[in-house]
Amino acid sequence: MRVRAYRFRAYSSKTTARVLKTQFEAACRLYNALLHAEQEEYERNRHMMSRNELRQLALDLRKRNTEFQALHSQVAQQVAERFYQARERFLDGLANKPKKKKPHKFLSLVYPQSGWRLSDTREVGLGKNKKKRRARLYLSKIGFFTLILHRELPLERVSQVCVKLDPSGRIHVIFLVEEEAETLGQSSKEPKNAVGVDLGIVRLATLSDGRYLENPKPLERSLDRVRLLQRSLSRKRFLSGNWFKTKTKLAKEHEHIKDFRRDLFFKLGALLAGEYDVLVLEDLNVQDLIQKSETKKRRMRLYDSSFSELRVMLEWQFRKRGKLVLPVLAFNTSRECFRCGGINKSLTLEDRVFLCPNCGFTLDRDLNASLVLLKRAGWVPPAVPVELRPIPPLPTLGLVSGRHGGVMIQEAPAFRRG
Known about the structure:
Blueprint: E1 2-11, H1 14-45, H2 51-64, H3 73-91, E2 108-111, E3 116-123, E4 133-139, E5 143-149, E6 158-165, E7 171-179, E8 194-199, E9 203-207, E10 211-214, H4 218-221, H5 223-235, H6 241-275, E11 278-283, H7 286-292, H8 296-305, H9 307-319, E12 324-329, E13 353-355, E14 362-364, H10 365-376, E15 389-390
Parallel strand pairs: 8-11, 10-15, 11-12
Antiparallel strand pairs: 1-5, 1-7, 2-6, 3-4, 4-5, 6-7, 8-9, 9-10, 13-14
Helix pairs in contact: 1-3, 2-3, 5-6, 6-9, 7-8
């Protein structure tokens, strides 16, 4: 069995939102009480409480303390489970030692089995949006939420329900569904075509068929407003009302950037997975690239490009369709000649055209690297593209101008500008 998460946007009234925040604060205090009890038990008896003992202690604290009685009983036990898992990760050397939680950072609750009910499911919207459905979710001790169901949800297999508050104020509900494990291997059909993808800073992705996607640089284009909000936040008194308001604005700006980037990666992956049977990627060590960067601006652009997230998205799009993903070594892909295999040792980062010193082969640097990746994976393209051409602007990305023809604009995408 495997667990799949179904994440939906949720909306609530102001009263329900206040109750939810009160529940987060109570759960945070319960977590800290369990941590304190664990520390005292270890100092007194050199004994660490088991999972069942922590769960029972959470229930006992809930019975004795009226503040904790605002939590559902299973939610209180799940707080104990969260502390137990954090302690086990520390003992296994996978995380730092559990420490006292801050109320403004404890932003999720889990209903493991009961305490929730989904009802009043109905279709909404017209045309293309008619696929969406709206439903009402009731969470015990909290209230009602309105969910936008953008995909089918198998309610009979739901094992947990998690309600999460983002730092920007958005509410999401995650349903964890147990499903039978499927083997996402290669499909029975013989792969007919492959694409090599070279990742870069100037061009986010250069394909072996001659297409490329410009790097929109969402963080860099929104950096002025991010810096302005960060300076404003630093001047506010910590945990004051104005501090929380500015922190929410800053979180919204970062979430705009994150959502834009993920939307772009998803749509690029869907485009490639619909056209090709095999994906060839370079096995990059992104952290090593960032550490070896000489300038602060280059490190920021590497973070902004998010190669690791892009690779995960592309691989997921191919594998969920039963298609093949081949990672190959990234060493010297930019310096190796696609035609003869010679190495151009004098090539620098400023050189955008590759010139082979052995055979004289000349080609765009990134296109040559993508062809080298394809060659290393055992695939030979039918022809070498002569010219690069941009990928047509993907819809709803804020990269298409209002005029006809779909010209990619050069100004900042649809983020909030300072």
